[in-house]
Amino acid sequence: MELWNIYDQYRHMTDRIHERGQEMKPGDHHLVVHVWIVNDEGQYLIQRRQPWKIGFPNMWDCSAAGSAIMDDDSEQAAIREAKEEIGIDLDMERAERLFTVKFPGGFDDNWLVRQNIAIEDLHLQEEEVGDARWASEEEIKEMVKNDEFISFNYFDLLFEMVNSNISLKKATVDDAEELLALQKEVFMPLYKKYNDHETSPVTQTMERFTARFEQGDYYKIFSEGTLAGSVHVHEKSPGLMRLHIINILESCQNRGIAQQVMKRLELMHPEADAWELDTILTEERNCYLYEKMGYRRTGESKEINEDMSIIRYRKESNLNKILSI
């Protein structure tokens, strides 16, 4: 008997449990994962589903996929499914959650894992998997065209992200010292420009900074494998996500990194009905970026000193989301 945790529409875990095979109640959601393993040659490890599978029989699929069982988080589910279906241990140091698809009965987290694996080292789960092989992006497109591969509607986005030089790695409190130093470096010019001793991230203590890891998610932003910045997001209220802070090092600015990261974050949180952020009124480049991304001023503002005011932006439409197939 397989049991699932039940989540609400905002991905809050409830205290209820669902037994697989039973009909889910309207409004209930469970967690699903898809794992895409890509080697250093840009090939995807794919598996063929057994012909007796109820869903998409005999079709080619991602590396591993399945539902999270009770008490699994998304990462644990990805690790377990890969071990069960193809017999390998995922290298989660080279993994990142790319996006999440919200479907009528749940949330489907798609993971990218960059890992080199020999086909002969696989141990296929006979009940689930009939075959496995490496395939290029072009081969997968051809297989989809020939109705041999499940026709996921997000393939273009998946390939774009895999080929991108931008990646997000979830940070931990062990990264606090490095990330606080990065934050101070990024915000020092604004601190000097506005003499902001009240709200500037430059003056933040380590104690206050580490508290950030207890609320929401903190990510390290990499560009071409090099640390380029960081971003912190959290849920402010059900359906409202807050982009608390985004830091891009000066040497990495003007490359469109912030735009790509903001799009990624929206794709990772389809449960959000709106996003919110604060910025400095007179920083026109930042305001232009946020407005370009679809944010609009709410009219809320706070004067910090005679030279500086903080204004609030909110995005409630045209959010980046993936519709389920």
List the helices and strands and how they pair.
Blueprint: E1 3-7, E2 13-19, E3 30-38, E4 44-49, E5 60-61, E6 64-67, H1 74-86, E7 95-103, E8 106-114, E9 129-135, H2 137-145, H3 155-163, E10 166-170, H4 176-194, H5 206-211, E11 217-223, E12 226-237, E13 240-248, H6 257-268, E14 274-280, H7 284-292, E15 296-305, E16 308-315
Parallel strand pairs: 3-8, 13-14
Antiparallel strand pairs: 1-2, 3-4, 3-6, 4-5, 4-9, 7-8, 10-11, 11-12, 12-13, 14-16, 15-16
Task: Please give a structural write-up.
- With 325 residues, the chain is of the alpha+beta class.
- It is 24% helix and 36% strand.
- The radius of gyration is 22 Å and the shape is globular.
**Spans of at least 5 consecutive residues with low confidence:** none
Q: Please give the alpha-carbon distance between the first and last residues.
A: 27 Å
Strand % is 35-45%
- Percent helix: 10-25%
Question: Can you give the mean pLDDT?
Answer: 96
Output the number of helix runs. Answer: 7
Q: Structural class, judged by helices and strands?
A: alpha+beta
Question: What's the architecture of the largest domain, going by CATH?
Answer: Alpha-Beta Complex
CATH superfamily of the largest domain: Nucleoside Triphosphate Pyrophosphohydrolase
Query: How many E-type strands?
Result: 16
Q: Which fold name is given in CATH as the topology of the largest domain? A: Nucleoside Triphosphate Pyrophosphohydrolase
Helix and strand run: EEEEEEHEEEHHEHHEEEHEHEE
Main sheet attributes: strand count, strand direction, barrel closure: 7 strands, mixed
Total count of domains: 2
Radius of gyration: 22 Å
Shape, per Cα inertia axes: globular
The CATH C-level class name of the largest domain: Alpha Beta
